[in-house]
Amino acid sequence: KGVLNLLYQKIKAIADSKGISIRQIELGTGLKTCSIYHWDKIKPSYDKVLLVANHLGVTVEELTK
């Protein structure tokens, strides 16, 4: 769970720094409501992480390191 929580926290921090809400990311990527929020408990697929990374203008590696 620790690694997953770090993924969510990293997404949240980058989104906050860009003035983007988690909901805006979900809308912009076609993800279901609250899906990113649950990534602190449930491992997302690589494709979903890639969608979020692209939306934020970062690499998957930046989100997962």
Q: Note the beta-strand portion.
A: under 5%
Largest sheet: none
Residue runs with pLDDT of under 50 for 5 or more positions = none
Topology pattern, helix = H, strand = E: HHHH
Radius of gyration: 10 Å
Tally of individual helices = 4
Q: What are the main properties of this structure?
A:
65 residues, mainly alpha, 4 helices
List strands and helices in order, with pairings:
Blueprint: H1 2-17, H2 22-29, H3 46-56, H4 60-64
Give structural notes:
By secondary structure, the chain is an all-alpha fold. It has 4 helices and no strands. The protein has helices at 2-17, 22-29, 46-56, 60-64. α2 (22-29) crosses α3. The protein is globular, with a radius of gyration of 10 Å. The model has no long low-confidence stretch (mean pLDDT 92).
